[in-house]
Amino acid sequence: MRRRRLQTFVIGLVVLCSTTTILLGLGLLAAASAPFDNAFAQQRGAHSVATFDASKVSSARLADTARRPGVEAAAGPFGQAVLEMPEDWLWMPAGSLSVVGRAEPDGPVDRIHLLEGRWATAPGEIVVNWPVAGTPGRDSLGTELRPRGGPALTVVGFATSMSKSAGGWVSPEQMERLRPATRQMLYRFSDAATERELRAGLTTATARLPADSLVTAQSYLALKRAFAAQADAYVPFMTLFGVLGLLISVLIVGNVVSGAVVSGHRHIGVLKALGFTPNQVMAVYLTMVSVPAVIGCVLGTLIGNAATGPILRVAFAGIDTGGAEIGTSWWPSVLCLAGMPALVVVTALIPAVRAHRLPAAQAITAGSSPRTGRGLRVQRRLGGTRLPRAVSLGLGRPFARPGRSLLTMAAIVLGVTTVTLTTGLTSTLLAFVDDDGATRVRVEAASTAEGDTDRRLSDRRTEQRLRSLPGADRVTVRGLTRVSLAGHTEPVYANFYRGDMRDLATHVIDGHWPDRAGQAAAGPAFLNQHGLSLGDRITVRLNGEQTPVTIVGRLSDGNAKALDSNWQTLRRLDSSFQAAEYTVRLTQGADVRTYVDAVRASDPALRPSVLRPDNTVTTTVVGFSSVFTVLLTVVASLGVFNTVLLDIRERRRDLGMLKSIGMTPRQVMTMTMSSVAALGVVGGLLGIPLGMVAHRLVVDHVGVIVFPEFTKQVWHVPQLAALMLAGVTIAVLGALIPARSAARLTIAKVLHNE
């Protein structure tokens, strides 16, 4: 190791970068389900949240279902009612709020985690389910909620349930006053790994009940898929980068050890002449590789764990974890600490076996006598061309060591693949979020519940005023409310639009934008979580009204808890709804400040703000891709560095002879660079198609986004020509330092040992 400090350093750095990359990918894979599983287990989450019609089945018969075969545990029955909140409350939009009557948060199933305050124990009190990460703070305790047609309720606590069994909880006495129309049962089944097992368990549990008494049943597997949906956006490309890092590590470690054996023939012969057995000689080379590999693996694990925390916080931002902390699992670190050194040793076995088999006399002779060159035929043909002598010698050099050249070229190919993949991802994401450069202003109307100035203008008059102000081009009105879906216990958000829909319609991938009453569109996350597809019909409920809605469009992206519809559909549910948010697209060249001031002058209750492009997934993916590209490009360059370094050490005699007959230092650098530039060109030709295939695999398997076809067509001739230089750049960067050291070698120093 002391005699090969650079090679030792290269092995350690390669393993460090690869371990960091792999650990990030494994950490995200583990975190995609671990926090949910941990919190779900701690809270004894319900495998199925079932709602029954109170007029068709008694509480006693529901309680008997807890003793049915396959039911591991059950809680309930609890009275359940739906409250209609007429205005925004606690930063939540108006709409339906499902409330359940429970005497205490604990129980055999769905142990509710109290975040702030206390449990509701008396009439007039409510505990609100806080649906996002973090807590609203104790200042929000004591807030009074005034549901439409119901008694006022004071918020005495905030809690979270991984089962999403309710939007709020009240005491059983309060629930009786609300006259619940449904009752809730919470089940845990002995077999609940798949949807089929869940359906079978629920069917067995409710077999003795009236056939039409079951109103809704919510599966915990749907909640788990929704929990991991955002992290799933990062999993494909991080997994791919981890595989690329692993392959590059194997290639470079094999190249380094093979080169160490080839260049250390004299050393092997001396060891065997001194009495080292073949196994001991092999152990020498395996130890030489293992020590820096272990050090690099440990440092890479530490860096990877330090980086995984911030990455996971971004990936799971705003997601409810039921009080469980998002953190790294132990098994990715153990797997890397045990697996990476083992992989390095296995990779080094093949060249180490060569040292094991090499006879002592042959090794000493090979280490002291000039080598007969290989690839001379190619070099002679190149020498007969009009190329400069330094270039022809350099281009012929890879054929002298074909095995080493192939390993080096493979590392360059993977490096170019990484650069191509990152370039394609960045181009696709930028095309996806491109907003045509137009300036947009969001105008929000203050809510009377917030104690602000009352609106002078009604909803319709506000829209007319915004359209009439100088600089306005298009106006889109959005009404946001919480609704409930038949067959699902957890409320969802519904966006109802009117006005100019051209911008919104561009996000439809399949089908069309909902342009008639009773139509809706949703993103892939919402459709997957609720088991819906184009043409399916659902029933939407709001304020005691309900209407059938048909899914007519699949959006490119969207929240897993939100669907989009039009104002005609909203009128069926609530004819008096007043919108409070307007998006104005300004004409080209319009003065933004003038328009904003005009809006404020129209009505003090209107709050205009300039919209800024913001896409967390895009920013995160581009950032991660850039980091991984730098890491893997450095690793690939280190492979070239090692190859050139070994080549120069083997050719010290040749370099001395060439310098003695007049080769200048500049020509030495040209010859060295030419030897790897050819590998870089071939690596670029092979790496670009692989990168294009990898890009397509990633963009087609991001679960929360469906990219339009035009965003995938990112490859153009100028871009491909620039990518062709990526392989040459990786090769030149890796060869630069060894080439300069070769150019500085003096003739006397090179030939001194001869």
Largest sheet: 10 strands, mixed
Give the uncertain stretches in residue-range form: 367-371, 448-452
Number of helices: 25
Helical percent range?
A: 40-55%
The value of Rg in angstroms is: 34 Å
**Number of β-strand runs:** 20
Shape: elongated
Strand residue percentage: 15-25%
Average per-residue pLDDT, rounded, comes to 80
Summing up helix and strand content along with how strands pair, one would put the structural category as alpha+beta
Euclidean distance between termini CA atoms: 24 Å
Detail the topology: elements first, then pairings:
Layout: H1 5-31, H2 34-42, E1 48-53, H3 59-64, E2 71-85, E3 95-101, E4 113-117, E5 125-129, E6 144-145, E7 153-160, E8 168-170, H4 172-178, E9 182-189, H5 195-205, E10 214-219, H6 220-232, H7 235-263, H8 265-273, H9 278-315, H10 330-357, H11 360-368, H12 376-383, H13 389-396, H14 402-433, E11 440-445, H15 459-468, E12 472-485, E13 492-499, H16 502-505, E14 508-511, E15 519-522, H17 524-530, E16 537-542, E17 545-555, E18 562-566, H18 567-573, E19 581-586, H19 592-602, E20 606-610, H20 616-650, H21 652-660, H22 665-699, H23 709-712, H24 717-744, H25 747-751
Parallel strand pairs: 3-8, 5-7, 13-18, 15-17
Antiparallel strand pairs: 1-9, 1-10, 2-3, 2-9, 4-7, 5-8, 6-7, 11-19, 11-20, 12-13, 12-16, 12-19, 14-17, 15-18, 16-17
Helix pairs in contact: 1-7, 1-9, 1-10, 1-20, 6-17, 7-10, 7-14, 7-20, 8-11, 9-10, 12-13, 13-22, 14-20, 14-22, 14-24, 20-24, 22-24
Brief account:
The protein is of the alpha+beta class and about 750 residues long. It contains 25 helices and 20 strands.
